[in-house]
Amino acid sequence: MLRSDPLNKKMTERMYHRDSYVTECEANIIQKKTVKNTVEVILNRTCFYPFAGGQESDRGVIGGKNVIEVREEGDAIIHVLDGEPEQTSVHCAIDWRRRYDFMQQHTGQHILSRCFLELEDAPTISAHMGETRNTVDLKVAILDWERIVKVEEYANEIIRKALPVSIHFFDKREDCPFDLRKEPVVEGIVRIIKMQDFEATPCGGTHCMNSVEVGLIKVTDYQKYKGGYRVEFLCGGRAYGDYHDKVVLLAVLRNELSAKEEELVQVAVRIRESEKSLKRELGSAWRNYLKLQAEQIIAEYMHSPSVVLKKKFHDYGIEKLIQLAGMLTCKVAVPVVLIGLGEEIAVVISAAKESGAKLKESCMPVLQNYAWRGGGSDT
Can you give the residue ranges of the Threonyl/alanyl tRNA synthetase SAD domain (predicted)? Predict the structure, then answer.
């Protein structure tokens, strides 16, 4: 049986279930409580969508107070406000720009998921529409950019067809005559989002009235995830904004690298290879320099031996101190203490195994003026 108003048994009438374009309403506060620095209210009716179904919640104003969170608890919608409204009868207004953005993302996700199912036999296991990025997790063994591009092209073709999007309610799954992309996960009344003959899916979220409102779907990345693949995508205004940002980024890179757009990858590869070569040359130069330092230190030690060979260096990190300590301990039979002074103090204590030196016993007096901690054995 088709339901025209399935919300009459709910504590809060959910206006967005029937019409995603409702942006304002008058409501009564039926419950409220203070939680730390916020006030939580339950209304008899609301146009605010709560966090649910992988979609973030609405923001806006209730009774002149900012809505900072909306969540679902059983039959109630909890609105978290930054203050207490003065009246129990309140005017509610959602942030329409945010709502419409999520409508584009969610409707786009339905289109993309159906396209992946049709072209790649890849069902969507879960989906999330976040503040800045969206993801669908697919159950599929193989996925690459060639396949993704075909799915994306098909999805944008569906957008351009301007398919009407409709909302349907049924008492139970058996009453629904549509070929559903996935089965309902709730018992009882089922809400279906249908896109003409292309797509029909159980969903409680907010959606556009027509596929053309999604504007554009753009896959931005993909990766293996839990035996399948996770695909990142953007829709509508977000996709256009991302394109704008990338156009600006490419312009900056072209100017900075003095290269044409089609040459940027080759230039980046050359820079990376040059960096690797410079690191190798610098590493070799440092090793030669440390060898010279080690020879000088050993000569000084031989001229004036002590029970501990101690040296301080400015701006020597732990890696250089370890290299130098290795060069010294193979030439002297006493413990070596090297201290690197800078923003942070680095200390290396070392001795040849055959020396039998007890490092804590012999070196602690040398280090008593330094706050340090570390690890390693006593020999």
Answer: 190-232
Taking only the tens place, the pLDDT of each residue in 137-164 is 999 999 999 999 999 999 999 999 999 9
Fold for the domain defined by 270-367? Diaminopimelate Epimerase; Chain A, domain 1 (3.10.310)
Rg (CA), the chain: 33
- List the CATH code of the domain at 99-256: 3.30.980.10
Q: Are 137 and 126 in contact (CB under 8 A)?
A: yes
Q: Where residue 55 falls among pLDDT bands split at 50, 70, 90?
A: very high
Report the alpha-carbon distance of residue 41 to residue 79 in Å, rounded.
5
**What is the CATH topology of the domain spanning 13-94?**
Elongation Factor Tu (Ef-tu); domain 3 (2.40.30)
Q: Which residues contact 261 (CB under 8 A, 6 or more apart)?
A: 250, 254
Nearest to residue 183, comparing CAs of 136, 125, 119, 227? 125
Angle at 375 between CA 370 and CA 376, to 5 degrees: 120
| CA–CA separation, 34 and 363 (whole Å) | 60
**Which of 160, 167, 165, 168 minimizes the C-alpha distance to 195?**
165
Take residue 141 and report the two structure tokens written for it.
């063994």
> What's the pLDDT tens digit per position in 331-341?
887 888 888 88
Of 119, 79, 124, 92, which is closest to residue 106 (Cα–Cα)? 124
- From first CA to last CA, the distance across the chain in angstroms is 82
- Could you tell me where the beta strands, DSSP code E, fall in 50-206? 60-62, 65-73, 76-81, 89-94, 124-129, 134-138, 165-170, 190-195, 199-202
Break the chain into its structural domains and give their ranges.
13-94, 99-256, 270-367
Nearest Cα to Cα of residue 184 among 197, 195, 168, 172: 172
